[in-house]
Design a protein that fits this description.
Low-confidence stretches of chain B: none
Distance between the termini of chain A: 38 Å
Oligomer: heterodimer
Mean pLDDT of chain A: 92
Mean pLDDT of chain B: 91
Largest interface: A-B, 24 and 29 residues
Low-confidence stretches of chain A: none
Number of strands of chain A: 11
Structural class of chain A: mainly beta
Order of helices and strands of chain B: EEEEEEEEEEE
Helix content of chain B: under 10%
Radius of gyration of chain A: 13 Å
Order of helices and strands of chain A: EEEEEEEEEEE
Strand order of the largest sheet of chain A: 1-11-8-3-4
Shape of chain A: globular
Distance between the termini of chain B: 37 Å
Largest sheet of chain B: 7 strands, mixed
Number of helices of chain B: 0
Helix content of chain A: under 10%
Chain lengths: ~110, ~120
């Protein structure tokens, strides 16, 4: 399974864009990159995923480099409620489906 | 989107007792569910894969006789912590795979978690 590397923490001012990087240099050609976040004491929440094209939804944008070895999650206008731990994951295929191996993630603090 | 619930949300029990945690997919069927454990200030760790109609698959280091998993139906999986001890105190989270509009891949929907405290 492809491993991911993220900075342990980041700060962002409210209203500004938060750019969260992730390295996944061992990713295979058919493996997706998923982003989840976990607000304190809650279950993780899906944000976005992609294969090789950039993706955008109502929550965020995902920029994947052409060689697919890294990606960046962009929260265009961060709010205080976006304070959470963000996980970049390349899922592991099991016999019964995909399991998510959570690394340490990036703890994002959005400040007023 | 799909919703996964857990019950109870919080439980406190005495050492040596057993605790059952339920995980339900509310508006979709899940033949597979995953159970995670999270200790304070740590990341989620996959404990086991719950399979409807067959035995659960446990991750290395997780005692199957201590953490009993039963996938009773297509919408319910239960995790029973038997003879609980203080070191079992943790945040237990379940998830079930769903489907994204993009197709061709599964999205995981997570329950809100169960906080277990063993005295």
């Amino acid at each position: 399974d492809a491993k991911t590397t993220q900075p342990p923490s980041m700060d962002c001012a409210e209203g500004r864009a938060a750019n969260l990087p992730c390295n996944h240099s061992t990713i295979s050609g058919n493996e997706y990159v998923y982003w989840y976040r976990q607000i304190h004491s809650q279950g993780p929440q899906y944000i976005i995923h992609g294969l090789k094209n950039n993706e955008t939804n109502e929550m965020a944008s995902l920029i994947i480099t052409e060689d697919r070895k890294s990606s960046t999650l962009i929260l265009p206008h961060a709010t205080l409620r976006d304070t959470a731990v963000y996980y970049c994951i390349v899922p592991t295929l099991l016999n019964s489906g995909y399991a998510l191996n959570f690394g340490k993630g990036t703890s994002l603090l959005v400040t007023p | 989107g799909a919703v996964v619930s857990q019950h109870p949300s919080r439980v406190i029990c005495k050492s040596g007792t057993s605790v059952k945690i339920e995980c339900r997919s509310l508006d979709f069927q899940a033949t597979t569910m995953f159970w995670y454990r999270q200790f304070p200030k740590q990341s989620l760790m996959l404990m086991a894969t719950s399979n409807e109609g067959s035995k659960a698959t446990y991750e290395q280091g997780v005692e199957k006789d201590k953490f009993l998993i039963n996938h009773a139906s297509l919408t319910l999986s239960t995790l029973t912590v038997t003879s609980a001890h203080p070191e079992d105190s943790s945040f237990y989270i379940c998830s079930a795979p769903g489907y994204t509009p993009m197709g061709g891949y599964n999205e995981q929907f997570f329950g809100p978690g169960t906080r277990l405290t063993v005295l």
